[in-house]
Amino acid sequence: MTFTKFVCWDVDRVRRVMGVEATQTADSIFLATHHPIAMYRQELIEIPSQVRYSEEQFLKDFLAEQDFAFVPVLGSSGTGKSHLIRWLAANIESTQKRRVLLIPKIGTNLKDIISLILEGMAGATFDEYRQRLNRATSTLTEAQAREQTLNQLAAAVGPNGRGDRTNLSDAQDYLVDVIDSFLYDPFFREHWLKDEGIIHQLVIHILGHRDTVEIVEERRQFSLEDLPLNVLDLQKAGERSREFYSLLIGDDDIQKETVDWLNRHLDEAIAQVLSLGREDLQRLMREVRETLAEEGVELVLLIEDFAKFQGIDREVLEAVLARPQQAGGKSLCAIRTALACTTGYFDGLRLDTVKQRITFSVNLDVGTVGKQQSLVNYSDIKQFVARYLNAVRLEDKIIQDWAKSRNDEDSDKAALSSACSECEHKLACHAGFGEADGFGLYPFTPEALEQMLARVNPETFKPRFLIRDVLKWTLENSISDLKHGDFPAISLREHFGKMRLSAMVQADIKAKDQQNYDRRQILLDLWTDSNELCDLHPEIHSAFDLPALGLKVHSTKVSPSVSRAKESRTSVNNYQVEPQSQTEKFPEKLTKQLQNLDRWNNQDILPQDIGGELRPLIYSAIGERIEWDTEMLLKGSFASSGTTYFKSRNITFFSPKVTRETISGVKLSLPLNPDDADEFRESAIAFQAILQYNHYKHWKFPEGDRYFRTYAKQLERWSQYVVGQIRLYPRESGEPWSPVPAAVELLAIAATMAGNPANSMEDLINSLFLDLEAKDLENRSANWKKLFNSLKNQREALLEIVTSRTACTKGSSKQFQIIDVVQILDPLQQVSKSWQLQCEIPVDVREKFPEINKARQAADEMLETAIQEECDRQLAVYNSLISELGEDIKKKNVIDLVKKAIDSSKEAGVFRGRKSGDDLKLVLEQFKRVGLSSYLETMKRVQAEKDNSDSKPSKLLKYLSENHQKAMTEASEFLGNTNNFLDASISDVNNQIELLERSGGATVESCHRAIQDGLARLRNLITEIKG
Asked: Is the pLDDT of residue 565 over 50?
């Protein structure tokens, strides 16, 4: 059978063997997977004098002491402290004269620990302890336990607490009287008793059950974050606690004192919950040792995690540190104590007596694997891993029988058999993947273990990380992928994080094997320490069902490693990019820059100095690459030192950290699509090309042609993106928006208000670029003038927006000579239909185009009002004219009649008015020359549009903007002077007729009649003129 898609484990066995954080593994599995632990021995904790130490020597020295040994096993979490304690328990046998008591770290609480201590202890005294413990805790629900813990703490911190109340500070004196009310207050109790709060955590520690490893670096205690400090809760507080709470929320010192006072009394409260005071616990531990001494039994106390003892830890320490011979008292049993504890928790005990009585200590912080000063090399890792892999392949019964045989006195202590012995794939598997002590490493190789461990545990070696994050995770998640020929899968890359392969190697993989690109990339990244495209051992390709490419084979390190001092490894953080050619050595700075770009491609952060060097080079290249004239864009407006649109600083580079940069104008964030792995990789290669060209000043460096092709491709994309973003200004929403239509609309309205022709589209287009000088502005309505002046103030900026995006300068000329009418035509057509603004200006671009925003605000606020006011003004003149002269005005007839009236009134001696007859005739001549027909026609359209209920007022803009002011002025002047003459003259006529009618005498009757008839005819003429 071919060695391919093979799986020799199952998930259940993986979890049973490697569940280092879930359950206590069976003793048989523990023994089957145990590998000697590297450690240092320290004589005094505070003096950094460390010597290499072995577990066999540790066991020997621990048992060699005559009647007392106290050895802390220290180190950071995950370094194997509890494992070492358990190994001691497996190798120290309980006898009639030796009682071995192992306190496990998983599945135990304080109650369980005290029960374990009491286990096997006979007598009424110990029965009473058991009864008290059960009475206090067996009937409590978790909610009741929280209440009980909080109540005990309130009692301990208050005036009736058992602690020493002498020599207190002023703040502590104050707290004694008030802090208990803070804990008893009904409102705040809800806060104290909440899930996952500090009280809840303490209850789990005291009475609860936890099925997973709890990493405790420091004592569980109150912190400032646990205090309720919301000022809005002040009025909700009870009367007793309100004054204290008002002080607490505003005084940092009181907050710190409160936390310290609560923590000072935690142990007392915990002990009371167990119904065992601190003195009771001390007495219990002493009586246990006294009883064992009477029986001649030595106690070996092995504690997997001393943090489990918080609340009784100091009492336990006092008991185990007491020497067997007690002056003036009963003798205590011989005792040997080894306890595992994180360095931080142990330091937090602050007990000088503890440090003085330490026999020696063991430290498991052994350094980073493979480093010269480390106690662990990769040969150790192979052997460590091989035992776990063998255990997950063997049946439980085989392991159990082996473990049982080790305990038989007649046993020869044979090594555990290898599951690989009977496997038909052994030869192929071991040849391809390697082995240690006959245990195969499949699906790992020594290189894979090295790379994977470096990703999850780059600092001091922690076996927990290797087991949990490398072995267990990979085996659990690879079964289906292996069976279906999909291993190594993308999930593996996502789990182990940043890749180390260079961008060029990734590009090579893509070019050679696009179909299996992701799998092959992960294989080379994790299963080799190389940075070149290669094949692996044929059996690896066969096992993973991933065909070889026919390239140079990278050899698997299947032989045992050499000594630690000679071992050299490439870590994930300091690998070197091999030069593409040995003919010319890369400068150190350039080499480092290329490496940093490769790391950036693998989701690291790009150093600022590289971004700073790339930015001006990319900016200059884009400026030269864009065909500004062809694009109908003015380079000086968008890519020059004085522009606000696209500057060198507007180029940014992707960072996995979330950053919000304030950049005005067009932002070019590279790569353009950071989620596209291909584009990201090509961007990194393009940046490498730029830096190399900038250094060499030519493209003849190694693989320069390849770098150039990638650079040219990306430069074209960047340039087109910038052009597109200039045309369509980027919004926060990501949707494009062009400012040209909005600016064209406003320019068109301003040009029309200025009286520029608007009869054809050609007229409208031309008017956009004509100087904006309004004709007859002084006579316009107030809002018309205000709006026009506002638009005029923004006109140059608006025109710049349009011309910079639509004009071509034709060579080196600064003056544009061609306009891209296509961009202008549509908004002009739309706005000229109704003279209502059509373009919406999004909120998120208004600050970026203040000239458009200001002009648009003015138009929105005043345009309709301005049109209405101007319409009323012009119609008033028009209606006055037609009311005097009629709708069908015949100018010649009117002028002739007025002249006749002037002559007749002069003849009759009744010519009156503010102007003389000659001046009035000049007004008539001026009126005669007025082009009245065009004005009258326009005003008829205005009147009709206004009377049309379906028409919008804005449509009047075109007509009202026409310059008929001369006609209006001279017509108004004509009417005013003529009416003045006619009114004054007819008034005089009427007065004279009235005088004549009142005068008498036969001698003047005939004359009187003639004058009266003449004046009557003149009155009728004037009346006819006035209509």
From this structure: no
